Amino acid sequence: MSILKVNTIQDKGGNTLLSSDGAGAISSGGAITNTPAFEAQLTSTQSITDLTYTKVEIDNEIFDTNNCYDNSTNYRFTPNVSGKYFVYASLAGDPIASNELEEVRVNIYKNGSSIRSTVINFSDNDARLATLSIQATVDMNGTTDYLELYGRVNDISGSPQFYGLNNETYFGAYRIIGA
Questions:
Q1: What is the dotted CATH code of the domain comprising 34-175?
Q2: Which residues of 10-22 are buried (b: 16+ CB within 10 A; e: fewer)?
């Protein structure tokens, strides 16, 4: 049986990977954490134009570990650490008037282009409200790459909105360690 006793483990560059306080508590130097990470939600309804892709203005941060999500101007996530990120979102499309919802689409955009999309189409069986979820794993460079959430709603009356009540519309991401 061998025992290795150290209080700090560093990589070749001298960066702390793990450290111990000597009483059993271990902390990470950042290399093995799932950060940057954020989650935010839409807190009210957002009026949109029918059949037009529109950026979802997710305005309320639940958490933002590295201050990488802009919740007031661009509504985008720009992580400051390179790596693979798990991105997830949910979008509720609302036709305002009962049973006039024909279709809802949600897209994850990277650097201004759609990289993942999902859709629900009710055809001739129009609905009252629909919530779609979407996920993706995305490579990010840690400097200029950014992610945004877009949606599109089609309703009979032509006056749809993104529904932001009851935490139904949200957007989040976190870095995947070891990938």
A1: 2.60.120.40
A2: eeeeeeeeebeee
Q: Tell me whether strands 69-70 and 130-140 are parallel, antiparallel or unpaired.
A: unpaired
Q: Rounded to the nearest 5°, which phi and psi values hold at 58?
A: -70, 115
User: What one-letter code names the amino acid at 16?
Assistant: T
Question: Quick one: tokens of 175?
Answer: 């870095």
Chain mean position to CA 73 = 16
Whether the ω angle into residue 160 lies within 30 degrees of 0, i.e. cis, is no
Rounded to an integer, the average pLDDT of 145-149 is: 98
Asked if 157 and 96 count as a contact pair (C-beta separation under 8 A), the reply is: yes
Q: Where are the domains of the chain?
A: 1-32, 34-175
Q: What is the mean pLDDT of residues 130-154?
A: 97
Q: What is the pLDDT of residue 70?
A: 98
Give the up-direction half-sphere exposure of residue 48: CA atoms within 13 A in the CB hemisphere: 27
**pLDDT tens-digit profile of 54-111?**
999 999 999 999 999 999 999 999 999 999 999 999 999 998 888 889 999 999 999 9
Integer distance in angstroms from the first to the last C-alpha of the chain?
32
The SS3 of residue 46 is strand
Rounded to two decimals, the pTM is 0.84
